[in-house]
Give the backbone structure.
Amino acid sequence: MTMKYKVIIDPQAKLDLKEIFIYAAMNDSIQSANRLLDALEETCYKLEKFPERGHIPPELRPTGIKRYLEILYKPYRIIYEIEDNLIYIHSVIDGRRNIQEILSNRFLR
């Protein structure tokens, strides 16, 4: 029997999604922002069926931190962690930003 997983989007990732939505709405349209938000959330929730499909973010490999994985919805990077049957979405980051700095601030504190 396959293990059932549940996706939890933590407050930081919710804030990331809100900022992405606002940016898209201001620079494109509300409709585009809604489509983007729906697609990002759908990508997150697909992890319920395939949680191991991600890979360790390259910026975290040298640190020895291996508990975080990422999947892509280009150019966005969704960073998550699997703990038992829970999948915690920690960040949704635009890959065009300084990822090293963002991850250092969030995960290396």
Remarks:
- The longest helix spans residues 11-27.
- The chain is about 40% helix and 25% strand.
- The radius of gyration is 14 Å.
- Residues 6-107 form a domain with the YaeB-like fold fold (CATH 3.30.2310.20).
